[in-house]
Amino acid sequence: MEEKEERVPAPFERGTDGPKVIVAGLDGSDSSWRATAYAAGLARRQNALLAVVHVQPLLVAGAALGAPTAAITADAAEELEREARSAIGRMPEAGSLRWEFHTFHGDPYTVLAEAADGLKADAVVVGASERAGHRLAGSVAVRLVKAGHWPVTVVP
Question: Which residue intervals define the domain UspA in the entry (predicted)?
């Protein structure tokens, strides 16, 4: 008698049918705007959700001196969101793009990694660092690639 093999459903896999959630890091630099534009086009073509993540750095030195850092960083985040809405609105077929804007406080690498995990991202898109010091200390993009949790696209 032939023994029947029981089929066990495959475990959940990210990205097997194309990306469903794409996280793009936006800090206002030219390379982060290019990365967000690239991610928006990819999300539109793949019918994926684009999660634009802006990380407000903790300005410890300014806070220690009594500067109103929370108001400054909140204003910057609101301005970036307005600019993102405007830029995405000018895209061809912008109405078919599903997207959301998230603002968090903290270390950019840690926050982007936590956001990507929390949103169950299939891909992360960031701009290449424009700071010379990152050649020594390591950029956010390099750290995300080394984490190896998601495919990471670094846009120059």
Answer: 20-156
Contact 108, 58 (CB under 8 A): no
Q: Which tens digit of pLDDT belongs to each residue from 79-115?
A: 888 888 888 778 777 678 899 999 998 999 999 999 9
Residue 65 Cα distances to 55, 59, 73, 76, angstroms = 22, 10, 16, 20
Tokens of 64: 């220690």
Q: Where are the domains of the chain?
A: 21-155
Q: Directed axis angle between helix 69-89 and helix 30-46, to 10°?
A: 50
Superfamily (CATH) of domain 21-155: HUPs (3.40.50.620)
pTM (2 d.p.): 0.75
Name which of 153, 145, 122 is nearest 15 in CA terms.
122
